[in-house]
């Protein structure tokens, strides 16, 4: 059987993702490859987890996050007993840890059927079939990129928002990071291909796009244009129908004023920036091989806020890097206090085998790292609360998400993201029939799928204008609808696309698309070497 023909019976799959946004997007490609090969996604329950055992389970691993190996082997341990009871089940491991550990995964977990790396995502269906035919594990790790992932079929998880990779790999040599070794040198896509993919997403209903790259603002280095990223932001701003544009993650060393100008002057670029600090100590930054210093970092934030006063800025910070002293840590606290981050992803340093930092002297004792981590988290929690409290009383436009907050069902709220990417839980008018949180989205009882839904009831992908009434460190609450305050729903093409998909899944609308029709929202799409169509 070839990789593009269906198995003799429809086999189901599920992809489990560990790690960063790049991994999330890679998982969409893995799902697209499997569906193009004839597999079908395992049905999901109301909690979003598979409702039944899948024939194929793919684990997309991370080698950067703490305890990455522990998470992988914890997942594999759970699957071992299931596989014993499910003849024909296959387990595949891909991603950064697979690229790093290779055949060692099968040696430690011999019930794994396929191991593939970051450079050969396209091989997954072939390897699965080869493992079935040969009745043995197949391990294939390419040393360099074989096919640019964005040219592969893709099963998008969201119909209203999507990821677009503009580059893969990294040219930096940060001593704590293994990514360049696992994903290779930076490879940049051509601007026309990126813009065509953005247009394709918008044509399917998306109104928000996030540009992805390991160091997204160094885009253009491969073809020698230092201003390419700013030009790309401006060009994306001309795509008809795109309403929100984000990007992650930029490197402070490559953050230039032309990018700030493009952000401020391109209306669809959202007032939000995630830029890793890692440490506030210049001495530690040198040891990390981070080619900027604390004052340069703070200067970038000042210029961003001057151009975009409402910008919400978030960051990453590592605590306890080898050799970090109490004075170094105090410098990090000082920078955090000055930077006024809305939130920070804080990590306790742990050695990653294969990185230069793993063999540095003066590894900081774990108890010291833990104590510093607690202090940093407490400081950031206070700042986050103060920054969010400053939002109370402001009117925000919220893009409604498919995922809901834990208390949304009881509180009669729905959730989404403001323009600055803050999480907002917003109340619906008291007389409005809300969707039930115990039902899967594709359920005929969902009032959002009615033939004539209440126009005040937002669907995922719709935009709702509300006033913020309460703040917590990690979210905002907007209950203005319950007191007669601001509440307006703007129904969007994205909301229409979501409703069409869910009505089809619920059997309320026949799936009538043909080979000549555009792909249904949420279906795999294949983007070879497209160009923007004339407008």
TrEMBL record:
It comes from Pengzhenrongella sicca. Residues 435-457, 507-535 are annotated as: Disordered. Its main location: cytoplasm. Residues 445-457 have a biased composition (Basic and acidic residues). The keyword Glycoprotein does not apply. The keyword S-adenosyl-L-methionine applies. This is tRNA-2-methylthio-N(6)-dimethylallyladenosine synthase. InterPro entries: Elp3/MiaA/NifB-like_rSAM, Methylthiotransferase, Methylthiotransferase_CS, Methylthiotransferase_N, Methylthiotransferase_N_sf, MiaB_methiolase, rSAM, rSAM_horseshoe.
